[in-house]
Specification:
4-stranded antiparallel beta sheet; 5 helices; 2 domains; 240 residues; globular; binds flavin mononucleotide
Length: 240
């Protein structure tokens, strides 16, 4: 199955077979990550694949593997990590491997290999012990009309994107030149800084789905002149 089809089938997997994946599979994953398209080529990032003994999470379940993801903490780095590793999420699911983004976790007994990179997030993965795929009608998502200034079927891949606590905080505005602006809904109570950071990752995830669905035409631009929208934070402009 190609990555675009997976957008409409994937789900977060929270039940795993404890057995680790074969070494060749892990090598294939590293190879995929080695040539991955990024949102912002100026940002340095890194990752490691570790076992459950090297992570601490708030979850009751464990996966046999975790991607521990690090980045230079510079403008747009959360979005860049979401964009990169959502492609990995789709790739893993396309190979029959289950995945789940884990905001509520961190590496343990593990030294950050690059002191200039900050720990960003975990992605759990391994062979699922339950269902891996689902049907389109089993997704709980906002209506297209709620996530955009006008209903536009080209935004469906973003509508289906996973997000922290399924918050779906993205909002798309159409520009006269055919480009789009993407905004993030401002949280009324900013009690939880981590949630704001996860929502920035979510923006990158939604853009990864738009990129995978429009690989030849997708391009994004930061810092473009844009309208201020009440209750929303401008993230970037893009074309698809
Ligand atoms: C940035 C981010 C952080 C997440 N953190 C957690 C987490 O800590 N624990 C968990 O069980 N799921 C976590 N998830 C998974 C979401 O809850 C899930 O993607 C969302 O509810 C939509 O469901 P779906 O992935 O099955 O479509 C996270 C997802 C994202 C994108």
């Amino acid at each position: 199955m190609n990555l675009e089809e997976i957008i409409y089938k994937r789900r977060s997997v929270r039940k795993y077979d404890d057995n680790p994946l074969a070494q060749e599979t892990l090598d294939e994953i590293r190879e995929f990550i080695g040539d991955i398209p990024v949102l912002n080529p100026d940002i340095n990032w890194s990752y490691e694949i570790v076992g459950p003994e090297n992570v601490k999470t708030l979850m009751r379940w464990k996966a046999p593997h975790y991607l521990v993801i690090f980045s230079e903490p510079v403008q747009n780095y959360f979005q860049n990590i979401g964009f990169i590793f959502q492609q990995v999420d789709l790739f893993l699911q396309s190979k029959g491997i289950g995945t789940c983004w884990i905001g509520a976790g961190s590496p343990k007994n593990y030294e950050n290999p690059n002191p200039e990179h900050e720990f960003v997030i975990l992605l759990a993965f391994g062979n699922p012990s339950g269902e891996l795929y689902r049907n389109k009608d089993q997704f709980k998502r906002k209506d297209l009309s709620e996530i955009s200034d006008k209903t536009d079927e080209r935004l469906i891949p973003a509508q289906f994107a996973p997000s922290a606590a399924n918050s779906q905080t993205w909002y798309f505005k159409h520009n006269d030149d055919g480009s789009y602006d993407v905004y993030r809904n401002r949280r009324r109570l900013n009690l939880n800084n981590r949630m704001i950071n996860w929502n920035k990752i979510d923006i990158g995830i939604a853009l990864a789905h738009l990129y995978i669905s429009n690989t030849d035409t997708f391009a994004s631009t930061l810092d473009k002149p844009h309208k201020e929208l009440k209750g929303k934070v401008f993230e970037m402009s893009f074309v698809i």
